[in-house]
Every structure is written in C-alpha cells, then in structure tokens.
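Contributing new records

If you add data, match the layout below exactly. Sequence lines come first and carry their own label; structure lines follow with theirs. Keep one chain per record. Anything else will be rejected by the validation script.
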Amino acid sequence: MDDAAPLNRYQLAELGSLLAEPARTAMLLALVDGTARPAGELAQLAGITPATASAHLRRLVDGGLLAACAQGRHRYYRLADDRVAAMLESLSLARAAAPRALPTKADAQLRRARSCYRHLAGALGVAFCTTLLQRDWLQTGSRGLFLRPDGAAALSASGLELAETPLYGRSCLDWTERRMHLGGPLGVMLTAAMLQAGWLRRLPRGRALQPSAGGLRQLGLLGVPID
C-alpha cells in the first residue's frame, strides 16, 4: 500500500475485489497478528485446497496486501505492513449495525487486549496510548508520533527495555474501542518490550493478549487506567 497519493476509483475497486472473496479475507485476518505463515497452513485456515490458496495468495501479493519470503523449501506470507492491518481493523467500523455486546469469554479477551499486526490494541492499547499523550510523553512530529526522552525514561524505569534508536509510530483507529491506539514501529517496539518484561503474554490461539498481574500493576503506576 502506498501513502503517496489517495486511491483513485479503479484502485479502490481493485482493493474491494481483493477483499470480496471470503477465502482471501480469511487468510488476511489470520495474518493480522503479525505472523508469517506458509501457504499450506493458510489454505487450511481458509478451508480451501492448496492450489486454490496459491492463486489467491498470488493475487494478494500482486495487489500489495501481502508480502512473500522464501525460507528453505517453503514460502511464507505476511501482511505487507501494519497499514494493511489497520485497514482491516478499521473496515469493521464502517458497518452500519450498532455495536453489540460481546457474548463470549474469548471475545471479551480480544476486546480487552489483542495484537493488531504486532502492536497492542483493544481497551488496554487505547488506554496506554491515551496516557502517553496526556502525560506529554508521546508527541506528534513530522514523521508521526514519537516518544519524548522523559517518556522513554519513565517506561525504562518501570522495567521495559527500549531500543536506543528513536522510532516513530502512527495512530491506529481501534476496531472495538472506536478510539486510537499506537501503531507503527514505535507501537511494535513498546509491545515487544511488554511481552519481554512479562507484562503481557500471547494466548495459544488467536490474537488476544493476556495482561499479567505485575504488568497491570506497572501500567497502573504509569497512570494507565486499569479496569
């Protein structure tokens, strides 16, 4: 996907055609967590044959939604970048139907905290981003959102190991909360640091992330409202 110019009507129609096939959307949604998966696994997840999956994957790569890389005898597929994940999440906001209560424990976990590409989303992701902005630790620059030195120092003091190289992020409209969470490379780095510190852990299946008691305590000390 290219930020240089808005999509024209033909490009938008092509994007719509890529998303109109349920098997293709199933494979895209399986990759929203930022993983890379082989064609055979994606075919199984989409409920189609490997030959059919190969044709669909080729279209998605040609359309700029997926990227492919070879590792040994296998080709692995991932989303082209986090903007594709943000687009897939934001499309849910366009539905006319009013939001309904999430009925299952799995849905509640997904709404509370989940991975969007590789950054923290859900209620916890929104609350974290809001706190960084309110404390003036996160600011907007010419390249996007960046973490100010005092913000980086506070997060490091709380136990997160942060990269020394300045990274920039972007706001990402949250699918369930209808508010912004932090995406882009900065969001990915901060989420990876939380996972490494044990504040979050990945559940065996799906995109839900489980906050630990210690992680919630540290986030609360940083000023993040914890429900």
